[in-house]
């Protein structure tokens, strides 16, 4: 019977390195999510493009501009999540095969292209909104203009018109300020593509370090367990040998 060689207390153990964080299910889920999110970003870009064409035309209204803001808010959240998913996928596939790495590169490129188009359209639509402040419907007062009216009545009408005009101007000024605030809000939605790509690179680095550290801790724990097991097994062998010698001497 072949004897098993024991190396008690040695840390020179041949441990198979696992695929760090690799999970086929997670890989598929992340890839699907990223693909869907890229489609969503492209769809939002088309929505903004249609709105852009209507800004400054008879179809321009506050409802249209509010829709632009809502579209940008939801899409910006999609962009943030997609960045996180790509970072996670990149780390997962550091040990993937060539085809898998090419897939990640394509998804990353598609994401960056979609993001660039979307961000450019955000800037264009914000600039056009600034050039075309929504027209405010003036409050018009109809006045009788028949010949022969008394001078006093005409003066009263002119005074009333002056007061009405003043109130209208104040009202218009308030609306203009409100609409300027809304345009600033639209401008605040604009994404910085370069900043997002920098954050994506940082996420990849951060997740890679975290997973590598976790793997290192697990590997050390495995080594300690192996050493402990070998020492215990060695002690058992020594006890058996000692008992055998005692029996033999008896």
UniProtKB/TrEMBL annotation:
Keywords: Neurotransmitter transport, Transport
Residues in Syntaxin N-terminal domain copies: 19-130
GO MF annotation terms: SNAP receptor activity; SNARE binding
Annotated GO biological process: intracellular protein transport; neurotransmitter transport; vesicle docking; vesicle fusion
InterPro entries: SNARE, Syntaxin, Syntaxin_N, T_SNARE_dom
PANTHER family (UniProt xref): LD27581P, SYNTAXIN
Any one GO cellular component localisation term in the record: endomembrane system
Organism domain of life: Eukaryota
Name under which the protein is recorded: Syntaxin-12
Ranges for domain T-SNARE coiled-coil homology: 168-241
Similarity comment text for this entry: Belongs to the syntaxin family.
């Amino acid at each position: 019977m072949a004897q098993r060689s024991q190396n008690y207390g040695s840390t020179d153990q041949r441990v198979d390195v696992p695929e760090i964080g690799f999970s086929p299910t997670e890989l598929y889920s992340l890839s699907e999510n990223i693909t869907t999110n890229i489609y969503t970003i492209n769809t939002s870009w088309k929505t903004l493009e249609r709105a852009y064409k209507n800004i400054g035309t008879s179809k321009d209204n506050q409802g249209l501009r509010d829709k632009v803001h809502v579209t940008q808010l939801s899409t910006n959240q999609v962009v943030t999540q997609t960045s996180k998913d790509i970072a996670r996928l990149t780390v997962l596939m550091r040990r993937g095969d060539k085809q898998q790495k090419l897939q990640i590169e394509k998804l990353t490129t598609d994401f960056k292209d979609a993001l660039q188009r979307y961000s450019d359209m955000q800037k264009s639509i914000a600039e056009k909104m600034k050039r075309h402040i929504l027209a405010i419907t003036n409050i018009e007062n109809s006045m009788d203009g028949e010949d022969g009216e008394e001078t006093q009545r005409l003066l009263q009408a002119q005074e009333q018109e002056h007061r009405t005009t003043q109130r209208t101007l104040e009202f218009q000024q308030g609306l203009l300020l409100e609409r300027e605030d809304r345009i600033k809000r639209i401008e605040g939605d604009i994404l910085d593509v370069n900043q997002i790509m920098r954050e994506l690179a940082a996420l990849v680095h951060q997740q890679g370090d975290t997973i590598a550290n976790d793997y290192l801790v697990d590997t050390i724990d495995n080594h300690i367990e192996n050493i402990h097991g070998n020492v215990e097994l060695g002690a058992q062998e020594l006890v058996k040998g000692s008992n055998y010698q005692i029996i033999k001497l008896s």
